[in-house]
Design brief:
Blueprint: E1 2-7, E2 16-20, E3 34-40, H1 43-52, E4 58-60
Parallel strand pairs: 2-4
Antiparallel strand pairs: 1-2, 1-3
């Protein structure tokens, strides 16, 4: 299981990026903008949870959750 966070600040295109919380790729948002989503076996479950919590549209980070990155 992997811990995921969502960026509470939307990107310029409106997406709220979902990140692997343990990423060392330098892509994590500032700590003040990180919202814990919990532990999931796939990033798609974490993206669905972010959307359910109102962080719409949610999208996987290109660098650390690329399997769920759609745009």
């Amino acid at each position: 299981m992997t811990a995921y966070i969502v960026n509470s600040n939307a990107q310029p295109n409106g997406d709220h990026e979902v990140h692997d919380a343990s990423s060392t790729r330098g892509c994590l948002p500032a700590a003040s903008n990180q919202v814990s989503l919990g532990n999931y076996s796939s990033c798609s479950d974490a993206v669905a949870e972010a959307n359910r919590r109102g962080y719409r549209p949610a999208n996987g980070c290109y660098y650390c959750a690329n399997d769920c990155h759609t745009r």
